[in-house]
Design goal:
Layout: E1 7-11, H1 16-26, E2 31-36, H2 39-47, E3 52-56, H3 62-75, E4 79-84, H4 100-126, E5 131-136, H5 149-168, E6 174-180, H6 200-213, E7 217-219, H7 222-232, H8 234-243
Parallel strand pairs: 1-2, 1-4, 2-3, 4-5, 5-6, 6-7
Helix pairs in contact: 1-6, 3-4, 4-5, 7-8
């Protein structure tokens, strides 16, 4: 896929993985729009980047999403690439903490909000000769972590949806990518040992390579190793993943 001179929307683009992807793609002569809930964080990010605009929006709120879509239609109608990166995670154990409230928030952010935004932007993307949707899942979409139980489940749901979406859009100009980061050293992952993770720039670099080679399943770093282990022996891979934490 040609990933230059495109218009790109990145949710959760003010920090972490989203910021690194925005930086990488803006340096490839793309026009990038980042969204997030914190205007201060978005402003700080834009100052550090070139050819990047921002729009404040909480993707879990329908009114915010409608305003975002209206803004895109008016200011950036040439949208080519949608990167669904915004996420939420809670660390807890099912044996000690009721799951419903955490699960509700994670499913809304990590799964349902992605579907809603795709629904609203598909008509625009279908008009393009070449377009892309990137859904950011996780190594935990392959097998769950016991202390991120419903986050893992939300990413597994997004993984399944992404596979179905890719199949459904196979005869269109829209390419559907799934980005599976492992543990990444960001503020988002600080509570789960993110300091031991890979730098977010590695995720952005591997996504860029995937765009250029049309590699639709982007298993970054440890995720690629874990995928191979899981295919060979799912039970042992699950045990090994959870023994790490």
């Amino acid at each position: 896929m040609n990933i230059t001179n495109k218009t790109v929307l990145i949710t959760g683009g003010g920090s972490g993985i989203g910021f690194s992807i925005a930086k990488t793609l803006s340096e490839k002569n793309n026009k990038v729009i980042i969204t997030g809930r914190s205007e201060a964080r978005l402003k700080e990010a834009v100052v550090k980047l070139n050819n990047v605009n921002y729009f404040v929006a909480d993707v879990t709120k329908e009114d915010d999403v409608n305003k975002l879509v209206s803004y895109l239609n008016e200011q950036h109608p040439a949208l080519d690439v949608l990167i669904n990166n915004a996420g939420q995670a809670f660390v807890y154990k099912l044996s000690e903490t009721p799951a419903y409230e955490n699960a509700s928030a994670e499913i809304q952010t990590n799964y349902l909000s992605v579907i809603r935004l795709i629904d609203k932007l598909l008509p625009v993307l279908k008009e393009k000769v070449e377009a892309a949707i990137v859904n950011v899942t996780s190594v935990l979409a392959i097998a769950p972590s016991h202390d991120l139980p419903t986050y893992s489940a939300s990413k597994a749901a997004l993984h399944s949806y992404t596979q179905a979406l890719r199949y459904s859009l196979a005869n269109t100009g829209i390419k559907v990518f799934e980005l599976y980061p492992p543990l990444v050293n960001t503020e988002f992952s600080a509570e789960i040992g993110g300091a031991n993770g890979i730098p977010p720039q590695q995720v952005a670099d591997e996504l860029l390579q995937a765009f250029e080679s049309d590699t639709f399943d982007v298993r970054v770093g440890f995720t690629a190793q874990f995928w191979d282990a899981y295919l060979k022996n799912p039970d042992e891979a699950f045990k090994a993943l959870n023994a790490r934490r």
